[in-house]
Amino acid sequence: MASGSTAERVIVAGAGLAALRGAEAMREAGFSGPLTIVGDEPYRPYDRPPLSKHVLTGETPADATTLPSSLGTDVAWILGSAATRLDRAARTLHLADGRALPYDRLLIATGTRARPWPNPHEGRLSGVFTLRGRDDAAALRAALAARPRRVLVIGGGFIGCEVASLCRQLGLRATLVESGPTLLSRVLGSAVGGFIGAIHEGRGVDLRCGSEVEWLEGEDGRLVRAHLTDGTRIEADVVVIALGALRNTEWLDGSGLSADPGGVDCDAAGYVLDRDGQPDLRIAAAGDVARFPHPLYGGRRAALEHWSHAVAQGIHAGRLLAGVKPEVPYGALPTFWSTQGDVVVKSAGLTTGADAVAFTQGEPGSGRFVAVYGREGRCVAAVSVDSARWLPAHAELVATAAPFPPHGAAADRPARGITILAPGFA
Q: Which segments constitute the Reductase C-terminal domain (predicted)?
């Protein structure tokens, strides 16, 4: 599609951050033809990070999270109706409301949804919540404002940690149950996760690592307690299910594209691959749902659920569909941040597959430190805990695949020097 072409129709499937930035990038690159954005929620794109922070405290109303946009009135919005099927032969996108939309170019940015509680009946009890969308945040905010006796959070990832910490900030009793050995162990490893867990315990979170909730008990349709596999019972008025996300790829079944629950596959340029591994030059993908070969990690395929990644890849995919060929493969350094009470965790790079970690700044036991992750003798990720000023220099080590462990003096390096943990920490 030539830049500035008006003859072809573009559809964006999804109405989140990556979709919005992709659509804006198309217009900015000169595409002036028909552009339609389709979303399953009835809202224009909104910012998700505040949902687990300022919205839950009541500082920001859920309906005040709409993202600013440069799009004009020449964009068609179809909201509240999800994409349900893709017919590539007929170049048609089918929606839940029965509409069939023809396209010439398609951006897939359908994102993720919260993983539900495995027992649907228990998951429907009043007092049981997930946290992914605007409506979820508004409902949970109302429940917290009612001052429940105890909030139980199931899952010790970033969302679970943020919710538990926020409950303590609101003066609510909070118990967090995590099946792994520490909080965030799947993402940051047990060493860093252990230090973060200690920070949360110090702020009054009742932390139960190495435990699992077996079933949720209700009375008259309302949650009253949770039963753990070890026989322990936890009385709670509110349960927040924070078990991760599911990528929205089911609607691509039968399309001939290479897609599964782990994401929709893209080539290095950003085009979506078919089942034979060939790119469909009419379709690109971006955001949480896109799985792509990351050049910083030897082409290992990754699907990332990061705010900055959604922006960068959305822009990349939008320009691609507008006819702007990339000079280099998409490979922005993954970055992420999480605010947990007064603790700010920021990261750069991917910890997946790391075989060692080094604490290079601060004292982990003090709650302020930087950790660098290594794999096969190279720096692959860095995480700062209340030490954000040190992260850019460490991010450069990751971006350049510098030797691990990193060398050079550090102004506030722990007195005992860099601590290296053996493989198996993650």
A: 336-410
The architecture in CATH of the region 342-420 reads 2-Layer Sandwich (3.30)
CA–CA separation, 369 and 22 (whole Å): 36
- 226 forms beta bridges with 216, 234
Q: Whole-structure pTM over 0.90, yes or no? A: yes
Residues of the chain with CATH 3.50.50.60: 10-113+246-321, 120-243
| CATH 3.30.390.30-classified regions of the chain | 342-420
* Domain 10-113+246-321 CATH superfamily: FAD/NAD(P)-binding domain (3.50.50.60)
Do 193 and 184 meet the contact criterion of CB atoms below 8 Å apart? Answer: yes
Check whether domain 120-243 has CATH 3.50.50.60, yes or no: yes
